[in-house]
Amino acid sequence: MQAITRRLGHQSLRPTSSISSIKSIYPLSGHYYGGDHPRYGSTLASHKGMGHLVRKGTGGRSSVSGIIATVFGATGFLGRYLVQQLAKMGSQVLVPFRGSEDNPRHLKLMGDLGQIVPMKYDPRDENSIKAVMAKANVVINLIGREYETRNFSFEEVNHFMAEQLAVIAKEHGGIMRFIQVSCLGSSLSSPSRFLRAKAAGEEAVLKELPEATVMKPAVMIGTEDRIMNRWAHFAKKYSFLPLIGGGSTKIQPVYVVDVASAIVAALKDDGSSMGNVYELGGPEIYTVHELAELMYETIREWPRYVNVPLPIAKAIAMPREVLLKKVPFPLPNPDIFNLDQINAFATDTVVSENALTFMDLGIVPHKLKGYPVEYLIQYRKGGPQFGSTVSEKVNPDSYS
Taking every annotated instance into account, which residue ranges of this chain make up the domain NAD-dependent epimerase/dehydratase (predicted)? Predict the structure, then answer.
């Protein structure tokens, strides 16, 4: 009996064919992308008009949509909503991440077993990028950062990384859709380095892949947003909110779930969205002051503002930009006084008159007042249950 047990034990240690096949799912070497491999031309054009990517299934998370998407930047704000919408229709989502393994952990619950696949990569290592893209037929680039750090500049994150992804997707030969998420207001003549880098990234992607789809969302509002959360936190901590330039700049904020829906709608169409640029703004235009009023109304605090002229705001934000790469330690990330965002908000940012919008994708965006901003009730002095909520006062018909 002991001899049989030992024999079985030795056999169990031998690699089986099934294990070998699992190891070959995500190749890391140049079998697909060797240095002597001929560079592929773009295959996106051949797929245009081929019909819907979604092939079969009931549409639920246990169906098979036919989409295998590599979502760069999936651990960010927009990423979690996009992954959730892709996963609930039965898509497999490959999630590249570069930090701790805890970073993509919350995403694994959004899909069926094995459908959300976190894969560690290095954005500066071309081979690791090819590995996470190897089995995909869709690539979505959400990578973006509105402030610089010691390690990553605006240009590297928002321009060169986007260009690199487009080049690798072109070489891949099996990418059916490439979606680049940029930013509303991006322009090569913008006073903001972030917006200039985003515009350069768009041009680089479309130069490599003319059939790529570019999404340009406005300021996004949602539970983890980087505008109204920061305002509410600042107002609760200091009992006032600084209004840079008087808060007269016009913006067109959009609900983050609508932006995710627009990306999914572009994937599910018959190819008509390929090669197009969409400007995704909400149904209402606000001034910064009016949006702050909505924030104060939701948290039920008396509005208190301090008007900060643009030159003074820039002077407050300047020291971080000057010292960023001169001191031997990392500096705090900017919140309210972000020099580049101050430059970006110096001009109005609204959807162009003749631009393609949500309507061209068959989506009616939500109005902000109501459920989209109700996450702000966490900042109420009496707690979230202090009185009735905003959505109980607003007719649900007004949400869309």
Answer: 70-281
> Six-digit token pair at 55?
């092939």
pLDDT score of 310 more than 50 = yes
Q: Tell me which residue of 366, 345, 221, 349 sits closest to 294, measured CA to CA.
A: 221
What is the full DSSP assignment across 70-105? EEETTTSHHHHHHHHHHHTTT-EEEEEE-S-TTTTG
Tell me whether strands 254-255 and 116-120 are parallel, antiparallel or unpaired: unpaired
Topology classification of domain 143-379: Rossmann fold (3.40.50)
Length of the chain: 400
Instruction: Give the tens place of pLDDT for each residue, 181-200.
Output: 999 999 999 999 999 999 99
Question: For the chain, which residues make up each domain, given as ranges?
Answer: 143-379
The pLDDT-based confidence of 386 (bands split at 50, 70, 90) is low
Q: Write the CA distances from 323 to 94, 148, 157, 330, integer angstroms.
A: 37, 12, 20, 10
Integer Cα distance of 65 and 56 in angstroms? 6
Rounded Cα–Cα distance for residues 116 and 371 (Å): 28
Residue 289 in contact with residue 243, Cβ under 8 Å?
yes
Least Cα distance to 243 among 316, 194, 292, 294 occurs for: 292
φ/ψ of 145, rounded to 5, equals: -150, 130
Is a pLDDT exceeding 90 seen at residue 393? no
**Rg value, the chain, Cα:** 23
Helix, strand or coil, per DSSP, at residue 202: helix
Mean pLDDT of 221-237: 94
Structure tokens at 231: 């305002």
Full 3-state SS string of 308-339 = ECHHHHHHHHHHHHHHCCCCCCCCCCCCCCCH
